[in-house]
């Protein structure tokens, strides 16, 4: 529980001399980033929606767009109030409108860190054990707005070996987007593509899908047996994406929602597990400064 954070936010609001009331909003809308099928995403976040409705006293709605851009556009257009974003998705919003959202919290791993990795993987029986074995084969990205499913591997993989590029027919036989993390995992597991990338904290056991991330969620959902897969590449640590709130929300609403998510791990560990995609220590405060490097990487990639 971060009482100091909640107190600081409340104090800031009071100092403006115009503390907004929660009933200044008629509903609260939470966007859920892609990564698994929409119904599973909705189920994982329903407990948070219930807590939010109780805390704010307004109807709370969940939105699970088909792709990352749906959440990005919802935040930019003001039709979403809150989301847990990937670093690249947050960078996309910031580059288009620095005043749209503010990062407030970040997921914390079991070792106290808040980084994760893009994990390259293939079927174990394919004989693929490294990127070198992927030459001429089909490689899958998740979503063009995903940090671990596109941005970081598209930068780091070409640095991993001479002659590796991310253009179809050059080094890899084909490079394609699958639509999301779950789709990539299932496509590799079913042999539809030879290898791909997804996200994981990289901690804990491979057979569990690590402690948290898309692989862990896929294992929990019974979609994959990790013993059938093998890790073939791992990125450098990536800063975990932030929980963001729409900047123009009433200050009291922002304070209440920050405290609610900040305390979720202590209040309801099972709910926190679903929201955070696995075992974590909950959430801690974060600011824009943690994402400057990702903003720059996204900007450079778009040039």
From TrEMBL:
Q: Which domain of life is it from?
A: Bacteria
Arranged from A to Z, the UniProt key words for this protein are: Signal
| Organism this protein belongs to | Sulfitobacter porphyrae
Q: Which InterPro entries match?
A: PhnD (IPR005770), Phosphnate-bd (IPR017797)
Entry's SUPFAM superfamilies? Periplasmic binding protein-like II
**Know the name of this protein?**
Phosphonate ABC transporter substrate-binding protein
Task: Tell me the first and last residues of the signal peptide.
Answer: 1-20
Q: Does the entry feature the keyword Nucleotidyltransferase, yes or no?
A: no
Q: Which family does the UniProt entry place this protein in?
A: Belongs to the phosphate/phosphite/phosphonate binding protein family.
